Amino acid sequence: MSITYTHRHVLEDHITGFEARPNVNHLSVIRRPAMAVVLAHGGAESDVDLALDMIEGVSKRVCGPAEWLAVAQDRTPESLLRALTSIPGASVLDGSDGHVLMRIDGPHARKVLAKCVAVDLHPDVFPIDMSAPMLIAHVAGNLARTGENSFEIIVPRSFAGTVFEEMKEMGRDVALTAGFG
Amino acid sequence: MASLITCPHCGSRPKEEFSIRGDALPQRPAAHAPDEAWHAYVYLRDNVKGVIFEHWHHVGGCRRYLVVERDNVSHDVLSVTDAARFRRAAASGQDGVVAAGKDLA
Asked: Do A135 and B17 touch (CB under 8 A)?
């Protein structure tokens, strides 16, 4: 007997009802990204760091010394893992179901995030492509700047509901909309 | 209390991201050390006024243990070092990690 599993996103219950078209300030929840935790063995830190930059379609998020999150939006977790396990000196763990990826875009993205994190997000100190682990709405997560006015947030799955609701609340004054995208 | 800690891995961060884990200087006795040594390690601690070395765990960030050297009178943070580096420097007697190295060696 074969069992068919239904994939259901953890924020499915938080995004219900009728939401109008996305406004300029929009929080999108990425439905099925592939994410993996990468740890470098002692002595291989800089090699793994460089190797992560070379993989096509994978973006690297800094989680601490010798630890990264590899994020791919157009790959399956299996294909991401295959690409990462070929890096010598790296230990890789699949984290696709354990994390939730959200993206906030819009001219007021930084203003909304300023109410959720206690880190300076000015482009001079937090430029495009930079990422850092930090508390996001009191939850330990990872924030990355992907554009002048867009940021990506990664939080543990079990806290995603809290962070999502908190972000929506903080974005009310700039009419932040939210949805899958 | 010092409200901004410059983590060597993450940069300037608010104290809310950290959990203070106590004095960084006492050396844990060996497992078979006499009870007196364990009693001294667990219960007999100095309550220093002035410059102290503490373990701060960066739970909200890189999750590394840091050794924060700070003044509990003026609230100045004097140095922040990764605990592993602090321990290595102390063991090898390097100059890099200030006076604490000498205390530990």
From this structure: yes
Render pLDDT for B2-24 as a digit per residue (tens, 0 to 9): 689 999 999 999 999 999 999 99
Question: Does the beta carbon of A127 lie under 8 angstroms from any beta carbon of chain B?
Answer: no
On chain A, the residues whose CB falls within 8 A of the CB of B17 are: 118, 134-135
Total tally of structural domains belonging to chain A: 2
- Domain tally for chain B? 1
Residues A164 and A149 in one domain: yes
Block residue for tokens 């909200």: B60
Which residue in chain B has the smallest CA separation from A61?
Answer: B62
pLDDT at A5: 81
Give how far Cα A27 sits from Cα of A23, A152, A165, Å. 9, 10, 11
ipTM for the assembly: 0.84
Please give the residue range of the domain that contains residue A57.
34-94
Domain boundary residue, one of A50, A79, A94: A94
Considering the domain architecture, whether residues A66 and A84 belong to the same structural domain is answered as: yes
pLDDT at B94: 60
CA distances from A161 to A127, A137, B16 (A): 28, 11, 21
For residue B13, the distance in angstroms to the closest alpha carbon of chain A comes to 7
Shared-domain flag, residues A103 and A167: yes
Please write the tens of the pLDDT for every residue from B23-33.
999 989 999 99
A101-155 confidence digits (pLDDT tens): 999 999 999 999 999 999 999 999 999 999 999 999 999 999 999 999 999 999 9
Q: Is B13 on the interface with A (CB under 8 A)?
A: yes
> Which chain B residue lies closest to A142 (C-alpha atoms)?
B61
Residues linked to residue A180 through DSSP beta bridges, in sequence order: A29
From the CB of residue B101, how many other CB atoms can be counted at a distance below 10 Å?
A: 19
Strand order in the sheet with A90-94: A59-64, A67-72, A34-40, A90-94
Which residues in chain B are contacts of A140 at CB distance < 8 A?
A: 59-61
For residue B99, pLDDT over 60 is answered with: no
In this structure, are A111 and A174 located in the same domain? yes
